[in-house]
Amino acid sequence: MRVALDATPLTLSSGGLPRYVTELSIALAREFPEDIYSLLSDQPFPMPERAPVNLVRGRQPHSAAERRWWLWGVRQAIRQTGAQIFHGTNFEVPYLGSMPAILTIHDLSPWREKAWQPDTPNTEADRVRRRTPWLVRLKRARMILTVSEAVRAEVIEHFRVPPERVRAVPLAASNLFRPVAPTSPAPKPFFLFVATIEPRKNVGALVEGWRESRAETNADLVLAGRNRADFTGIPAGDGVHLLGEVPDRQLPRLYSDALALVYPTHYEGFGLPVLEAMKCGCPVITSCDPAVREVAGGAAIHTSSPREIADAMRAIATNPRLRNVLRGCGLERAADFSWSRTARETHTVYEEVLEAHSGV
Question: CA 31, CA 171: separation in Å to the nearest integer?
């Protein structure tokens, strides 16, 4: 099988989207060495590290016409690879042509709260809002992938598509994430937040809950992640540490040293930091969002207000037995997920779509 995948998320420096394309493409190439997987984009992007030989970079646009990527350029690039199917990894597939395609819709945040998105035209969220409904309506994607059952249900209802056209294939935490031996000497106790700092992540509630509980926990607050341009920054100092973007290889140490990951997100398609923390043996305090509940599988503390966040922080900081229980439950839950499984289930969808296309 020859598969072309949209590599545009790899132009981002951090976050769940580049992690998805990196880990999925590597796992597909390793699980199915007889296949060829081509990464395509109209923008320069770094190839995944440790890329197997059957994971290759496709051509970039060479003319003005090809720079109209989703209309013309991507079709030329696909032809050059000889791909039989295209995987739109981030809300988009080619607008025209008979090439069978599948489309990943990670969440419905572009159609949810306006306050979660930059209030400017022609942003990525704005383009997704305008284009993706037409791609779904015109059936340019034979199958839609979501990363959780919660989002699958939302996609079926929002776009009014038949359930058989939507498949949930969960993500996983990279093999980089594992428990790390305690730092010596031990750092000052801290709670950790890992994600892009943006309105949807509910960071204000996190800071409020931390401040309310700080007298009892004596713990600092560490935030790791890029600050999105439209988000009003949180000042550093007085126990708040803003690390900015942190390389993936440094995150296991942060997760392992933290009292807990605190992730009070308003809305997620999956909630990858929750799983990463669990895989490192880090207790998790998170929200009641349906997708996050699905991923946590009962192995986290769920909160819905700054006061509940504060109560959970106090409990974890003062109760070693609770921390150990959450650590064990999280490790057990994280073991249910793997990128090999994600790749196999995604490949099954490729096979089904190609089989249906050959019968047309």
Answer: 16
Does 104 lie in the same domain as 44?
yes
pLDDT of residue 173: 95
Residue type at 236 in one-letter notation? A
pLDDT at 118: 65
The span from the CA of 241 to the CA of 103, in Å, is 38
Q: Strand 190-194 vs strand 260-263: parallel, antiparallel, or unpaired?
A: parallel
Same domain for 137 and 16: yes
12 and 126, same domain (yes or no): yes
Q: In terms of domains, do 115 and 258 share one?
A: no
Q: What is the pTM of this model?
A: 0.91
The HSE-up count of residue 42 (CA atoms within 13 Å, CB side) is 17
CATH code for the domain of 297: 3.40.50.2000
Q: Where are the beta strands (DSSP E) in the chain?
A: 2-6, 36-40, 55-57, 85-88, 101-104, 143-146, 166-168, 190-194, 220-224, 240-244, 260-263, 284-286, 301-302
- What are the two backbone dihedrals, phi and then psi, of residue 53, each rounded to the nearest 5 degrees? -65, -25
Q: Report the distance separating Cα 150 and Cα 270, nearest Å.
A: 9
Provide the sign of the torsion angle of the four alpha carbons 142, 42, 109, 176, taken in this order: positive
**Which pLDDT tens digit goes with each residue over 251-285?**
999 999 999 999 999 999 999 999 999 999 999 99
pLDDT band at 120 (very low <50, low <70, confident <90, very high): low
Q: Find the domain containing 348 and state its range.
A: 2-172+338-358
